[in-house]
Specification:
- The chain is an alpha/beta fold and 308 residues long.
- The protein folds into two domains: 215 residues, P-loop containing nucleotide triphosphate hydrolases (Rossmann fold); 56 residues, no CATH class.
- Helices cover 34% and strands 25% of the residues.
- The protein is built from twelve helices and 13 strands.
- The strands form three sheets. It has a six-stranded mixed β-sheet with strand order 5-6-7-3-8-9, sandwiched between helices. A four-stranded antiparallel β-sheet has the order 11-12-10-13, covered by helices on one side. It has a three-stranded antiparallel β-sheet with strand order 2-1-4, covered by helices on one side.
- The C terminus is likely disordered.
């Protein structure tokens, strides 16, 4: 379990993390989501003792990271897949880690197979690895000590679609076996597929947290529908007390999809497409972090020629 209590980090007059509190539970994948620069990495660096907090504290299994003996056996960490010795081979990187943790060299072979790095790839120097291979090596190092907690910052960065699917399965299986996973990302769609709990952060502050259902519970009902006779369907929906407005080739309706289906059945209109039109997690995320987004932020309109 990871417990974060009132965590704050300031740099001069800038507050990178502002009174952040949450708990990542065993047996669950907790997604830590926010735009670039929202404070995710700073929070994770504080968790593992790389950055001192200005206020607040983090405990992992009830202990500060610095007080955990042989921490690699208890907490697996991946904050920067590129922060590995470029002149060493992948096998050498893992062998040094294994010996530091007091693990047998045979654990290196097990973990290389787990992350699908071949014997030939393991013999290559890290400078010759692709970004995706570095991510796999970083995950391998995090898993080396068979820890009960994983803290991963953007672990899917650089992976191809097959690699992303592999990563999802690996982390979900880890949590299903009782592990605690804290996964940071700005790729909401990817995290949404595996996270049991999501924490949304913007400008260093938590703006929402909960599971997908609870986060979307306050959103208004809406449906998108296309039929063989949209005019007849719109009249049937109006008679049933629902507002329907044109949307692309179909209609947007202010009710659940089941109500649209009932109206279509009663009027004998054939539907060709029916789906929820309610705001999804991405819409909610963008709404809650609107003032932290570069694109669409009012300042962007006046910052002509500024740095990207």
């Amino acid at each position: 379990m990871i417990t974060v209590e009132g965590l704050t980090k300031t740099y001069g007059g800038f507050r990178a993390v502002d009174d952040v509190s949450f708990v990542a539970q065993p047996g669950r994948v907790t997604g830590f989501l926010g735009p670039n620069g929202a404070g995710k990495t700073t929070t994770m660096r504080i968790m593992v003792g790389l950055t001192p907090p200005s206020h607040g504290r983090v405990t992992i299994g009830g202990h500060a990271y610095r007080d955990i003996p042989n921490p690699g056996r208890h907490v697996g960490v991946l904050l920067d897949a590129s922060a590995q010795h470029a002149g060493r081979t992948g096998r050498e990187v893992l062998t040094i880690g294994a010996r530091t943790m007091g693990l047998p060299d045979s654990r290196v072979d097990e973990i290389l197979e787990m992350v699908s790095l071949t014997p030939a790839e393991a013999k290559r120097r890290v400078r010759n690895y692709s970004l995706g291979m570095r991510q796999r090596l970083g995950v391998a190092h995090a898993l080396l000590g068979d820890p009960s907690v994983l803290i991963l910052d953007e672990p899917a960065n650089g992976l191809d679609p097959a690699g992303i699917r592999w990563m999802r399965g690996l982390l979900k299986g880890y949590a299903d076996r009782g592990g605690t996973v804290l996964l940071s990302s700005h790729l909401l769609h990817e995290v949404e597929q595996i996270a049991d709990e999501m924490i949304l952060i913007g400008r260093g502050r938590i703006v929402a947290q909960g599971d997908k259902k609870s986060l979307l519970s306050g959103q208004s009902a809406s449906s998108l529908v296309t039929s063989l006779d949209n005019d007849a369907l719109a009249r049937a929906l109006s008679d049933a007390g629902h507002s329907a407005t044109p949307a692309g080739e179909g209609l947007r309706v202010d009710c659940e999809t089941a109500e649209v289906g009932r109206a279509a059945l009663a009027s004998g209109v054939v539907l060709t497409d029916l789906r929820s039109g309610a705001a999804g997690l991405e819409d909610l995320f963008l709404e809650l972090t609107a003032d932290t987004q570069r694109e669409g932020h009012p300042a962007a309109a006046t910052d002509q020629g500024g740095a990207a």
